[in-house]
Structure formats: C-alpha cells, structure tokens
Recover the amino acids of this structure.
C-alpha cells in the first residue's frame, strides 16, 4: 500500500486516494487506532496496576501446575470455564491493594537488602556456589519475566509479608468452631442402594423416521464433527540427549569440592535449655539444688517454666541466642548444668540435653553429585550455544532439515496429533513442555515462524507445523446410525429419570421399597459403608454424595451415577462421626486458620480499595485471550 502511494502520490490517482483517506478519517474518526491503547491494564489500585504480562505469568504457571497434577493438558477454554482466570485476577487485586497500602506506609525494602537476598538465593547459584548472572537470566527466561519485573515482584512480596505478619501472626480459632468443622468433615454415612440402567436389549422397539433423524442431526451438528489434528516437526535440544557430549575432568570436580567444603559438612549441633534467673542468689541456689538431686525439672518447676519455654533445639554454634550463651552450650557435656552467663533476661544457666556430632562428606562421597550438577550446567551451556546457532540459521532462511544436518541434530516428526496429545509421545520431553507444544501447534498455522519453547529445566524445542486437518462437519449419511443411537439413548434416559422419580415418591409415601424395585429391575441391592463427603468415584458422583448427605436417616435418595447414564436409588441406613484425634484437630486448626486468613484478607482488600482510587476491568480478560488466540501463543 505504501509503495503504491509513493509511486502515485504526485499523480491524479494518488491525490484522489489521499483525499478519500482524509474524508474517511473526518467521517469515522481515528479513535479506533487508540481506543485499545490501555487494554494491557486489567486493574488500577491506587498507584499500582495489574498488567497483562504479570497476569499471564501467573496464569501460565497455574495452568502448568494443574496440568502436571492431572497428567493431561488443560486448555485455555477449560481453565476459563473453571474460573481460573478470574481467580488469578482476584489474587492479584488483593496483592496490589496490599502493596498500594504499603506504598502509603513506606514499607519498601532497600536495594542493598534486595541484592543480598538475590545473592543468597540457591536457585541463582552455579556449581561453585556463587551467584551467577547467567543462571539468574536463565531462570527468568524460563519463567517468562523480565529482570525489572522480577525485582518489582520481590519488593512487593517482602512488603506483603510484612503486612500479613502484622495482621495474622497471633490469630486463633476457637475450639468450638474447630469441633463444628470436624463434625461436618468427618461425618460418615452407610447406604443401601440399587443401580437402575437403561434397557439396551429393547433398542429395536423404538421407531424413528428419517425426518426425525435429520432434524436431530441439524439441531446437534456440533456433536458430529471430525477431530482437528496436526502434523509437526521438532528440533529438540534436550539435556538427556546432549549430556553424552560433555566430558568431565576429575580436576574440575576436585576444585569444585575444595571451593565449597562448607556445602559438604554438617556442623555440630546441640539441644539445650536456656534458663533465666532474676539474681545471682537464685542462680547459686539452683546450682546447689541440682548438685544434690541432678533433677533439671525441679529447677524449671521452681522457676515456673516449662520445657517449651527454655528449649533451644538442634542449633549450631552460630545459631544461638548470643555468642556467650552459644559458646557455653558448646563447652559443656550433656546433662551438666553450667553457668551463669549473661542472657537477654538476666543471669542464665545452660543445660545440654543432646549433642549431634559434625559430619563431613569425603570427596569420593560427594563426587557423583558434584559431577551430575557440573555436567548439567555444562549441558545447559551447550544447549544455549546450539540455540544461538539455530536462531542465526533460521534468520538466514535455512529449513529444519538443513539446520538438523548442519548441527548433527535429529528431527522428530509426529502425525495426526489431536488436542489431547494422542500420537505424540517422547520419554525425554516432560509433561509441561509437551502440553506447551500441543497448545502452541493448535494456536498457530503452517508457515508461521514460532519462537522456540523452553521448559523449567532448560530444555529447548523448535517447532514447525507441517499439516493441519481442521475439524469438519460430518455428512448426515456417514453418521446416521450414530444419530439414531443418540436419539434412543436420550429417550431411554428420560424414561429412566421418570420412573426413578416415581419410585422415589413411592418410597417416601410408603407405597414401595427397595426390595420390590430390585425385583422389578432384576438387580441386586448393594451396600456401601463409611461414605464421606469426598467419596466421589465412578458409582457415586459428586451430586450423588451431595444428595446422600442432604438426606435424613432411613430416608431415600436419587442421583446419577459417577460415570454413565444409570441412576442410583437408595436409603441412608446409618450416620456416624469418626473419633476425634488430637493430630486431626491440630491439622484442622491449621487449615481453618489458613481459610480464615484468606477470607479476612479479601475483606480487608475490599475495604482498602474503597479508600484507594480503584478501577477494575474484568472485561479486558476476554480481549486479552482473543489476542492470545489470534497470535497463536503466549
């Protein structure tokens, strides 16, 4: 278009075209060019913004976590249907609200403290136990964030932690509340039930004419489509495959060991009591009493202290309350009352109860692990070296086949892969990277040059789409039998639903019972004991469990099975509460504390947002995901 304008700008055609453009802008305006300039901002809380980059970083991390747990790929559509996107946005709103409040209170960590925190983070250290900028950049790249964003997130995280501790450090849940929750969560129910099935032997009895078949097909065409599939090629730079190219010299491993001796040595640790006194006279009296009966518990009781009050558990020399106390604790033997020393609360006696000797790994004991770590780092460097070469070759226009031949790499080709990953298997590609590859190929097109994908372990893959078989509507003739089967199945489900509802009413009105229904359907009455609110399986669906726990003792219930079209009818025969154990109550208390803190945090966030100038644009999520789908990847 620009070439056309340049060639004809001085002629009559060019002048006419320019006039038309000016008239178009004057009539319709140029607002559309700038209307979406701010769509990258999903919310504003005070001076803080929730931008699309940070949202997508959190969203992708959560999708990968869920995919790993389920051991299958979770699509954007499935994730959004489950509300994951709005949940991520809600969490970000809470965080930005806290950080905006922290800004007002000037709760900001210094650059020096942040730098020290960075240097002491193990994830950013190399084989020599030193902070490595290359490792740091690699971790950021794998997580899809910039250095500025990382430091901003670190500062915000520290500020959030300070506010969180101030609010919730001493929160307590009442015993009565925990008991109520315990009864709810640990209620068990026994049931007698039978499973009613559709009659598969009576299919021929259903008369369905061609017009009915055709109408059902037209109204449900989305059920009769072929599967979308892709053919693609990978060039994979995987640690498991490239590590064999790395040779490790013993001298280097020895040097790493000697430069990091502290990593292979566990210092001596001691467990001891730190017992404070008010005066030297009390100290002397305690020493005399201990010399007579050697019972340390008498000392604690006389001071009104418990073991928990004075215990210092498994500490190294550097970890003591202060140098004086720590030095004394490491001077004496077990079961000796020593002191006095100067403590934070006055004259103090020390009593050692346990000594854990130091332990140091020899070079031979540590060698295998050091060699593995070193080889992993060298392999990673090799991957990035080849990665840079391939990127240059792609820029020069080389094909995948030419790149593979130039670098002695293997091409991996896959055919007819659907969006669930069928026909795509590789033992050396982990689930997260596999899911990313599937999502990428189903959001891209033939001929588009795609950025390489990198997983959290540093493996890199280059992708090329070779063929696309889009889903298409199947013609009526090819699916006619399936349409007929679907109509019959729908009718049978309706008939089964009607008769099961009638049976339920009959039992409630004492006009029928399970034995009579079982005889009518020629099925057995089954039993299931100790059903909990979380006992979902292929027989008892989530909705069935909900119905059972809404039903009173000796009353009937009806629900769908977990898998299939059958229906359960049954009676609740027993209701019981599991015996309480101290450890269960403690675990429940921790869980309830966490839930209560989250609820309070969201409530606090809502109140703070009223004080701050706040704007939230949830509708921009739709535009963001439309843009992502159009571009093909994150």
């Amino acid at each position: 278009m620009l070439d056309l304008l340049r060639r004809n700008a001085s002629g009559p055609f060019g002048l006419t075209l320019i006039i038309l453009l000016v008239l178009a802008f004057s009539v319709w305006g140029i607002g559309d060019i700038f209307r979406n300039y701010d769509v990258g901002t999903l919310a504003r809380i005070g001076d803080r913004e929730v931008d699309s980059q940070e949202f997508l970083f959190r969203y992708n991390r959560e999708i990968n976590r869920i995919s790993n747990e389920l051991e299958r790929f979770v699509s954007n559509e499935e994730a959004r249907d489950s509300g994951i996107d709005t949940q991520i946005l809600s969490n970000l709103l809470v965080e930005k609200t806290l950080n905006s409040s922290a800004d007002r209170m000037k709760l900001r960590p210094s650059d020096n403290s942040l730098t020290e925190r960075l240097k002491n983070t193990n994830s950013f250290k190399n084989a020599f136990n030193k902070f490595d900028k290359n490792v740091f950049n690699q971790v950021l790249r794998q997580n899809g964030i910039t250095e500025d964003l990382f430091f901003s997130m670190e500062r915000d995280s520290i500020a959030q932690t300070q506010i969180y501790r101030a609010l919730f450090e001493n929160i307590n849940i009442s015993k009565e509340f925990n008991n109520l929750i315990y009864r709810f969560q640990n209620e068990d129910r026994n049931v007698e039930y039978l499973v009613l099935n559709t009659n598969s032997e009576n299919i021929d009895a259903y008369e369905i004419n061609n017009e009915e078949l055709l109408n059902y097909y037209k109204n449900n065409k989305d059920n009769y489509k072929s599967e979308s599939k892709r053919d693609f090629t990978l060039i994979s730079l995987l640690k498991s495959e490239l590590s064999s190219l790395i040779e490790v010299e013993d001298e280097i491993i020895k040097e790493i060991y000697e430069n990091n001796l502290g990593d292979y040595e566990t210092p001596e640790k001691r467990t001891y009591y730190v017992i404070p006194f008010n005066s030297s006279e009390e100290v002397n009296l305690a020493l005399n009493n201990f010399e007579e009966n050697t019972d340390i518990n008498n000392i604690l009781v006389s001071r009104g202290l418990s073991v928990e009050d004075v215990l210092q558990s498994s500490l190294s020399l550097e970890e003591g309350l202060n140098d004086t106390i720590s030095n004394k604790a490491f001077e004496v033997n077990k079961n000796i009352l020593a002191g006095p020393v100067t403590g934070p609360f006055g004259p103090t006696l020390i009593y050692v109860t346990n000594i854990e000797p130091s332990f140091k790994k020899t070079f031979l004991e540590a060698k295998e692990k050091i060699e593995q770590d070193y080889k992993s780092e060298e392999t990673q460097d090799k991957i990035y070296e080849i990665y840079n070469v391939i990127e240059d070759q792609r820029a020069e226009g080389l094909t995948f086949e030419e790149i593979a031949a130039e670098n002695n790499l293997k091409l991996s080709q896959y055919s007819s892969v659907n969006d669930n990953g069928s026909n795509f298997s590789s033992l050396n590609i982990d689930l997260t990277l596999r899911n990313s590859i599937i999502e990428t190929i189903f959001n891209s097109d033939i001929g588009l040059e795609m950025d390489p994908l990198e997983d959290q372990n540093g493996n890199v893959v280059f992708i090329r789409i070779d063929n696309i078989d889009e889903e298409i509507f199947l013609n009526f003739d090819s699916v006619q039998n399936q349409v007929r089967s679907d109509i019959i199945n729908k009718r049978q489900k309706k008939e089964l639903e009607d008769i099961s509802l009638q049976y339920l009413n009959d039992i409630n009105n004492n006009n029928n019972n399970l034995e009579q229904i079982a005889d009518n359907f020629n099925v057995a009455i089954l039993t299931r004991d100790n059903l909990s609110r979380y006992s979902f399986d292929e027989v008892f669906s989530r909705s069935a469990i909900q119905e059972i726990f809404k039903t009173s003792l000796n009353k009937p219930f009806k629900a769908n099975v977990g898998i299939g079209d059958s229906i359960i009818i049954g009676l609740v025969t027993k209701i019981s509460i599991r015996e309480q154990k101290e450890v269960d109550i403690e675990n429940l208390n921790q869980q309830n504390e966490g839930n209560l803190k989250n609820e309070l945090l969201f409530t606090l966030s809502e109140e703070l947002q009223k004080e701050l100038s706040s704007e939230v644009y949830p509708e921009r999520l739709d535009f963001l995901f439309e843009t992502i789908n159009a571009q093909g990847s994150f």
